[in-house]
Amino acid sequence: MKIDIQTLAAKKAGSIDLPDDIFGLEPRKDLLHRMVVWQLSRRRAGTRRTKTRGEIARTGAKWGRQKGLGRARHGDRKPGIFVGGAKAHGPKVRSHEIGMPKKMRALALKHALSAKAKDGALVVLDKAELAEPKTKAVRQSLGQLGLDNALIIDGAEVNEAFARAARNIPHIDVLPVQGINVYDILRRDKLVLTKAAVEALQERFQ
Asked: Domain check: are 86 and 6 in the same one?
């Protein structure tokens, strides 16, 4: 697959061949969905916890006689129906992470990249660098490229001036190639890769 390389000034700077085994696959929705679920489940802290009846510091004595008061025959004050009582079947500290093989995660990333390429939502930049962190300059450049909702992936290191300028623009994310992930790719309309990012991805999947 051949795609044009663009500059921040929206000018053509040659073209690049993208490998079909990374950018030319037929996207599988089931695999992408499973990957997003895996990512979001790993973000959950799982630290919510409520007390059981055995952990409530209230009397365990029968607080009323068995018959004659017209009330339920409670044996103590710890049930959840009482104020300050326990929580029935409440959450416990646990891990929400689900299993997903490493090879399947790598395949899901390829399918996410292929999905953007197939939809025409993939842009390759020559480089994403600025001399000064000027948000106005980045906003103007992205506007010329038609990018108002995009994930920008640079090489091993992100240009600090560009990243600082872009972080003030809503719906624009900038990540190094090590941070590329399926969820962030799918949540943005466009995917922007620099030449360095493309080369790093090719090396990664070799």
From this structure: no
**How high is the pLDDT of residue 73?**
84
150 beta partners: 172, 190
* Number of domains, the chain: 2
- pLDDT-based confidence at residue 67 (cuts at 50, 70, 90): confident
Q: What global pTM score does this model have? A: 0.84
Q: Concatenated DSSP letters for 2-49?
A: EEEEE-TTS-EEEEEEPPHHHHSS---HHHHHHHHHHHHHHH------
Rounded CA-CA distance 105/127 in Å is 27
Tell how far CA 107 is from the center of its chain. Answer: 17
Containing structural domain, residue 105: 2-45+99-204
Question: Edge-to-edge strands of the sheet including 2-6?
Answer: 12-17, 2-6, 122-125, 190-194, 150-153, 172-175
**Listed residues 67, 90, 113: the one ending a domain:** 90
Average pLDDT on 95-117 reads 95
Taking the C-alpha atoms of 104, 44, 97 and 191 in order, what is their torsion angle to the nearest 10 degrees?
A: 0
| Residue 140 pLDDT grade (very low, low, confident, very high; cuts 50, 70, 90) | very high
| Burial tier of 16 (Cβ tally within 10 Å: 0-12, 13-18, 19+) | middle
Cβ proximity of 195 and 125 under 8 Å: yes
39 and 63 co-located in one domain = no
